[in-house]
């Protein structure tokens, strides 16, 4: 059941009263000492904020809740001094969840509609980080509005009470995903561009030439000449210098041709930009450049707000600072083959995405189990052989195939597809080995984790199915293994 959205009432802290009663001389000494302290904390906090920006590229903007309010720092100094003793929200339960939102900004048409929605999760014990992207067209229940696109929540809340969007979205998604979301951050495009420009730009290795003939031009959304609404974005393969504007286009491009046109490619581009910004920050030794710190601090203060306290940001940075970008777990919720979402059209003719099974159970399972790690020795063995795996659900149990795929991916199996088998009365799971013994280590692990028996021969009906798939699909890659899961899999469930 969806409860009423508790909208955030942001209260400004008043830190001026602590000086009352001091004489002018002591007041002056306090002011000078406090000024030096505030500057130091400003530098420290800005470094932490940039790193969080690097890892997430998503921050929150609200005029009423600026995270770098000088008056709030002194009241939090004792927490900064005891950061290691204080617990982040969720830390006691082994997982800190942060909602990350991206939007155009208040000066744009529809500027409070969230363009990017991501759940970042951190395991305090291991330092593991996951980024789980949700599409803006996904429908979710919103109090007072029924089922609407997820990107509307922030705008609805901001319209009712300015500054409440971040909390409203985090509360709604907490119910949908069935996990606590205690922190939220939101970024507009201005802060993204300005921070990269302040750093002097970045260099990105473009893996594939990017051609996007329909990149939207800001401010020309309603141009009577339709062609004038877009520009042609072209980036050659290889190392390319980028300022903030070009980096923004690189991570936002949605209509590129070829392999760069997918959501997965877009996610990879975002990760490359984040890593490039992180490298630039470390190379510049930003802590020793006060003027640069001040410039970035101004940008953050104008465009960033959050329910993070300063000491919480510093502690979170301490947890994730040594996490390599290539070790960040990234998941994109999409409508691809075997994905958890399907396309739909509303009675009004609007395009939406909805859970393929009619509820959010599969999505919840994926989110909750993102940190269920497989043994390193087994993942290493599988990744050396890199087997492609097709999973077919041979039961009437909704979501069983996707749950199995989620678990087996952690071992390194490349799940090429998840779909229903031709019949749903399988009692026992079976593995068909199309590698014919060439990937024996992976086969042994797959058998161990699923409890399935192995069949080295292909029955006529399966040969017919594979032939039909080849006729209907272009560039179909034959899997190394086909796993048909039976009712026994509901009991054994890969057991990660």
TrEMBL record:
InterPro entries assigned: LytR/CpsA/Psr_C, LytR/CpsA/Psr_CW_biosynth, LytR_CpsA_psr
Keyword Transmembrane helix (UniProt): yes
Protein keywords: Membrane, Transmembrane, Transmembrane helix
Domain Cell envelope-related transcriptional attenuator: 114-281
Annotated Gene3D superfamilies: 3.30.70.2390, LCP protein
Occurrences of domain LytR/CpsA/Psr regulator C-terminal (ranges): 389-437
Regions that span the bilayer: 40-61
Name of the protein this chain belongs to: Cell envelope-related transcriptional attenuator domain-containing protein
């Amino acid at each position: 059941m969806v409860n009423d959205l508790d909208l955030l009432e942001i209260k400004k802290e008043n830190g001026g009263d602590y000086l009352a009663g001091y004489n002018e001389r002591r007041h002056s000494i306090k002011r000078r000492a406090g000024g030096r302290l505030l500057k130091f904390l400003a530098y420290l906090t800005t470094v932490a904020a940039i790193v969080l920006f690097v890892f997430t590229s998503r921050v929150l903007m609200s005029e009423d809740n600026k995270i770098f309010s000088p008056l709030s720092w002194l009241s939090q100094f004792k927490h900064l001094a005891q950061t290691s003793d204080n617990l982040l929200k969720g830390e006691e339960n082994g997982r800190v969840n942060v909602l990350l939102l991206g939007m155009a900004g208040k000066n744009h048409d529809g500027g409070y509609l969230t363009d990017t929605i991501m759940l970042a999760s951190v395991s305090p014990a291991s330092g593991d980080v996951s980024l789980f992207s949700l599409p803006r067209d996904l429908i979710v229940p919103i109090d007072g509005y029924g089922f609407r696109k997820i990107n509307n929540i922030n705008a609805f809340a901001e319209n009712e009470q300015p500054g409440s969007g971040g909390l409203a979205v985090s509360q709604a998604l907490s119910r949908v995903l069935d996990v606590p979301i205690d922190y939220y951050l939101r970024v507009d495009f201005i802060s993204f561009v300005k921070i990269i420009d302040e750093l002097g730009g970045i260099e990105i290795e473009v893996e594939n030439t990017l051609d996007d003939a329909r990149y939207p031009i800001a401010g020309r959304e309603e141009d009577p000449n339709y062609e004038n609404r877009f520009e042609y974005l072209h980036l050659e393969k290889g190392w390319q210098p980028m300022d903030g504007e070009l980096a923004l286009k690189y991570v936002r491009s949605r209509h590129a041709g070829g392999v760069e046109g997918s959501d997965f490619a877009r996610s990879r581009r975002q990760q490359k930009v984040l890593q490039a910004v992180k490298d630039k920050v470390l190379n510049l030794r930003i802590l020793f450049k006060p003027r640069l710190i001040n410039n970035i601090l101004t940008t953050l203060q104008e465009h960033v707000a959050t329910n993070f306290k300063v000491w919480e940001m510093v502690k979170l940075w301490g947890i994730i600072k040594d996490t390599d970008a290539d070790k960040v777990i990234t998941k994109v919720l999409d409508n691809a083959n075997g994905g958890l979402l399907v396309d739909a059209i509303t009675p009004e003719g609007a395009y939406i995405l909805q859970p393929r099974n009619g509820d959010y159970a599969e999505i919840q399972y994926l989110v909750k189990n993102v940190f269920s790690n497989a043994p390193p020795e087994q993942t290493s063995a599988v990744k050396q052989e890199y087997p492609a795996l097709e999973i077919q659900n041979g039961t009437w149990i909704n979501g069983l195939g996707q749950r199995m795929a989620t678990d087996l991916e952690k071992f390194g199996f490349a799940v090429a597809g998840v779909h229903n088998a031709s019949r749903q009365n399988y009692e026992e799971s079976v593995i068909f080995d199309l590698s014919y013994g060439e990937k024996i280590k992976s086969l042994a692990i797959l058998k161990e984790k699923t409890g399935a028996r192995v069949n080295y021969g292909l029955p006529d009906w399966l040969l017919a199915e594979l032939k039909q798939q080849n006729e209907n699909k272009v560039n179909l890659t034959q899997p190394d293994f086909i796993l048909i899961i039976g009712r026994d899999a509901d009991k054994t469930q890969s057991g990660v």
